[in-house]
């Protein structure tokens, strides 16, 4: 009870001092507020960016490997002169992998036919991202349908004139209409819409299906050369459930080397890309961003901490007479020490709380303006309170110690 009473009285003295010197309190808060706002703001921006990028990467599938000409790579020297001479994946490669891969649940072949204009009667939409795929594409890529269905096996094999449209394309061609069953013109050919992708919105890697037009590969073969390098052909392989992605990758490397008849001394002339490559690259990038943001924020907090230390020295000087009276009435050194420490910590916590409120306010405004959800991690909020308390202790310990060691007679006579 005595300890609680001492803490309560120390809080009362601290609050009284802060209320009596409002301008000084406000000026002391600025540095801490800016520092905490910088740290939490940078961490929130980085977490938001990472969250959006990770959502984009997740669409690629955690157990899916992409056989391509060009490898995915972050940083370092990119040997493009070596990769450009590699052959692109072919239908023969696809068929052989499909026949031999024992660790694969599904294998699909994918080509990107570029941005095209899609028409329906008098309506047209430019910039549609036309892609052609084999049947198992729906197993190797994560997407949802808003209406209709995906290609049947028979439609894929026969190259039926059907298509699945992205939400934005369907909405642009047929506003306020059911797109399923309508006939549109793609690359000069009439195709029937059998499905519409669920709206996803823009993502950080450009993998949104909103502007996609998906065609069966065997239909596209009648219009374009699906093995031409300009259409960026690639093979995607999804491993069986529970099969480690490294085992799938190891088997595919052996298969591709065998299919392309590469001798043991020759390098791979293909790339096996997977989402973990992107995740590892993102981790490295965000470590740098977090470190930079933390360094900037700590510098701002230290500046604020020096400001609070100066204010506390002034406060001790102004209240020397009161300290002498308190000590003459029996106040112990630890009581004097505690009230100044609490005052310094309160200043830092108030500054941190204001900085946090500003971050939440900005996050709310960004959400309203751009519909982008800002991530404010609870762990970072806890970090804010720990930092604020620590800076308060560091800033106030020397002034508080000096105040607690004052001689009561000299302190009373100081005024």
UniProtKB/TrEMBL annotation:
Residues 295-408 form the ABC3 transporter permease C-terminal domain. Residues 25-254 form the MacB-like periplasmic core domain. Keywords: Cell membrane, Membrane, Transmembrane, Transmembrane helix. The chain crosses the membrane at residues 26-46, 292-313, 334-362, 382-403. It is a multi-pass membrane protein. InterPro entries: ABC3_permease_C (IPR003838), MacB_PCD (IPR025857), Macrolide_Exporter_MacB (IPR050250). It comes from the Bacteria. The keyword Coiled coil does not apply. It is found in: Cell membrane. Belongs to the ABC-4 integral membrane protein family. PANTHER family: ABC TRANSPORTER PERMEASE YTRF, MEMBRANE COMPONENT OF TRANSPORTER-RELATED. This is ABC transporter.
């Amino acid at each position: 009870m005595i300890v609680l009473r001492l803490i309560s009285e120390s809080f009362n003295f601290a609050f009284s001092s802060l209320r009596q010197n409002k301008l000084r309190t406000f000026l002391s808060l600025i540095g801490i507020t800016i520092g905490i706002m910088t740290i939490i703001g940078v961490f929130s921006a980085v977490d938001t960016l990472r969250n959006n990028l990770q959502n984009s990467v997740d669409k690629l599938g955690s157990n899916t490997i992409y056989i391509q000409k060009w490898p995915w790579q972050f940083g370092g020297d990119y040997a493009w002169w070596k990769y450009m001479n590699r052959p692109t994946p072919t239908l023969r490669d696809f068929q052989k992998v499909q026949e031999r891969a024992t660790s694969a649940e599904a294998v699909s072949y994918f080509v990107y036919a570029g941005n095209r204009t899609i028409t329906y009667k008098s309506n047209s939409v430019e910039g549609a991202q036309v892609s052609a795929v084999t049947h198992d594409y729906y197993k190797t890529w994560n997407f949802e349908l808003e209406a209709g269905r995906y290609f049947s096996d028979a439609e894929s094999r026969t190259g039926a004139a059907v298509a699945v449209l992205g939400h934005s394309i369907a909405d642009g061609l047929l506003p306020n209409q059911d797109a399923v069953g309508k006939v549109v013109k793609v690359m000069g050919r009439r195709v029937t819409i059998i499905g519409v992708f669920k709206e996803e919105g823009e993502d950080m890697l450009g993998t949104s299906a909103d502007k996609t037009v998906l065609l069966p590969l065997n239909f596209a073969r009648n219009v374009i050369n699906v093995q031409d390098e300009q259409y960026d052909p690639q093979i995607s392989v999804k491993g069986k459930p529970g099969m480690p992605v490294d085992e799938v990758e190891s088997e595919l490397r052996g298969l591709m080397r065998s299919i392309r008849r590469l001798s043991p001394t020759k390098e791979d002339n293909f790339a096996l890309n997977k989402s973990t490559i992107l995740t590892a690259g993102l981790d490295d990038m965000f470590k740098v961003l977090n470190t930079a943001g933390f360094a900037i924020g700590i510098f701002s907090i230290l500046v604020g901490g020096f400001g609070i230390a100066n204010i506390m020295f002034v406060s001790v000087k102004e209240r020397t007479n009161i300290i002498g009276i308190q000590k003459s009435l029996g106040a112990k050194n630890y009581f004097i020490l505690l009230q100044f420490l609490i005052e310094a910590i309160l200043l830092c916590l108030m500054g941190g709380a204001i900085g946090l409120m500003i971050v939440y306010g900005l996050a709310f405004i960004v959400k309203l303006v751009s519909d982008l959800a800002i991530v404010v991690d609870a762990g970072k909020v806890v970090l804010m309170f720990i930092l604020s308390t620590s800076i308060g202790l560091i800033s106030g310990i020397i002034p508080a110690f000096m105040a607690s060691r004052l001689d009561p007679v000299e302190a009373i006579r100081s005024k």
